[in-house]
Write a structure and sequence with these properties.
Elements: H1 4-19, E1 28-29, H2 30-37, H3 41-53, E2 57-62, E3 74-79, H4 85-90, H5 95-110, E4 114-116, H6 117-124, H7 130-143, E5 146-149, E6 152-155, H8 157-162, H9 165-180
Helix pairs in contact: 1-3, 5-9
């Protein structure tokens, strides 16, 4: 087993890699962590995750596409608990953009993970102008919250990492039940 000081040094290096955005996408691939901090990088990330827990943060491992090994996965630091609306707005999100994101994720999830772009547009056009939907969807795709494969829309890697889909669906069901009263 490595010394405590060595473990702390490797955890520090791992956190630096996770937080400093070097590519268009946040986080770092597993193979980059392995190359930088060693083959036991998963153990070091587990140790670091315990430390980040006291700050309300956690490390998430997200597979992009058909990847199945940790070396191919993307690791990133996310907020452990839900953020407040004021924090989302100060991060540059508008409430109507968040509504489009939430509706899109919920609808795609209810359709076994993929739907046609036209079907999603028809759903959203009930509440939003088409120019705004198209601009917002482009932004959500660019940031990785949604994926477009031809005419098919899917939930993106970033939504899988940052959004608790179960909690989102639970809130939508509660909201729907509350509106029936």
């Amino acid at each position: 087993m490595r010394s405590r000081r060595d473990l702390e040094e490797r955890a520090k290096r791992a956190l630096q890699l996770l937080l400093v955005q070097r590519h268009r996408k946040p986080g770092v691939k597993g193979w980059e962590l392995r190359r930088s901090i060693g083959k036991n990088y998963l153990n070091i990330l587990e140790y670091l995750n315990e430390k980040l827990d006291s700050y309300g943060l956690c490390i998430k491992m997200v597979y992009e596409g058909e990847e199945t090994t940790p070396d191919q996965a993307r690791f990133l630091v996310t907020v452990k608990d839900s953020i407040r609306m004021s924090e989302a707005i100060s991060a540059g999100w508008r409430i109507d953009e968040l509504a489009i994101l939430a509706a899109s994720i919920a609808y795609i999830a209810s359709r076994q993970g993929s739907i046609s772009s036209r079907e999603l547009l028809r759903l959203l056009e009930v509440k939003f102008p088409s120019w705004f939907i198209e601009a917002t969807l482009r932004r959500l795709i660019r940031y990785g919250y949604l994926e477009r494969d031809g005419d098919v829309m899917k939930i993106g890697w970033r939504s899988k990492a940052e959004i608790d889909g179960g909690k989102l669906l639970e809130l939508i069901v509660k909201m729907d039940v509350g509106s029936e009263d």
